[in-house]
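[Solved] Which block belongs to which protein?

Original post:
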Amino acid sequence: MKPKKSLGLHVKRLLSGVSHHGAAHLTEVETDLVQIGLLLEVAVEKLSSNFIAIHAAVSAQQDVINVLLTGARPTPQQLAQLGSTEGKIDRNVNAAVTSMQFQDLTSQLLERNIKRVTGLREFLSTLGTHGARMSPDSADEEIIELLADVRMALAIQSIELRGALRQAVSQQHLESGDIELF
């Protein structure tokens, strides 16, 4: 009777380990996907406001040019506005370009998630590979040994995957400085 109790304990440990490691990796995927959504939301908001500001500056510049084209003299306020328009456009274009660099950050997050999903697929493939070694006629001791091997292989794979994917997502050498996220 003792081998059955031992076999049940090993199956329980294996299933518990698979559940724990799988859930932990899927939680990381979920967290990264939420962060990608937030990055996209903030970047699109900043891009929109910068493009609206660029449009406003160009429209103001065009208004002064239209006055000049009619042969009229622009007001001192229009001339001052024309002089400051170039700086406004430059600042807004630079801010828009910086906002667009979110693509690099989201690419890193997506790449990390692809690696994590690939690692999970390999993780689950380990179950199939080891399971194929087991025959229906295997003795309990062989099954216990196989289950222990599977549990150890899965734990090692999980640790290796977690270590390979733990690095922060970062963008360096932007005009606005270094950015490190998550």
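(Second protein starts here: sequence line, then its structure tokens.)
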Amino acid sequence: MRIQKGGIVKRYGIFHPLLLSFYSPSLYRDVAENWKGVGFLYLLLLLSLAWIHPIMRLQQTTVSLMQTLGPAVLEQVPTITIRQGEVAISEPQPYVITIPGSDTPLAVIDTTGQTTPENTQAFLLLTKRQAIVRKNLHETRTYDLAGIQDLTVDRTTAKRILDGCQRWLAVLSYPLALLGSYAYRILQVLIYAAIGLLFARLLKAPLEYPELLRLSSVAVTPAIVADTLRGVAGFGSSLAWWFFCFLLSMGYLLFAVRANSSAEPGERAYPPPTPPMAGPAIG
């Protein structure tokens, strides 16, 4: 297939590398010679497809957990009032909301000051004037409640929030996951292209950094596809798996550079077609 663009004949479009990147030297020659830009648009397309299954699985898992554990958690939610930035409940404190089957509390409400982030592993600690959210074992995020003048949260409100999470989780999670992975992959491709300069020197391939950026963006396709299939199969990730993906990407980047080393500097790997010979003049 040939795609005419700006006077340059492209043999392959943006969807072709999804398959041809696994085996086609001619694809990598076309990417280096005839594609424009640095390949980040293709990278965005690839990640957009790769994130569909993980987000769908996250949605299904979350809905299943909420349907199973949600009612038990909702039964524990007290009526919480926040007026002039101060929290109040009528139940004895510290008040603990737990997840059935888990030793880690989901939330602790304590306006007395007895509970601190240091002596609880709760995901949410609600004090008299602050909401403290635990991101992981070593990091918390504190939100001041001074700006809240009058708010009441009860079981009905909590159920509405859970229902909203079930409905909008995938819609909100997909762009966040995509943008985060896109930034990570761009940084990765920038580093890989720098390594590609070494490959190009060793193989005497006439490739500059922008061309190697395009090649790197395509060369990571097999590793991203393999990682996506790993997730579909339900296998976990590990340091050894990350190292395997790195080696796989390096192998395909070397393959891409080698595919472009056969053409001497100034020689096109795809010379323009020879025009038909003119027939004899009739006079």
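Accepted answer:
You had them paired correctly. Confirming on the second one: The longest strand covers residues 130-136.
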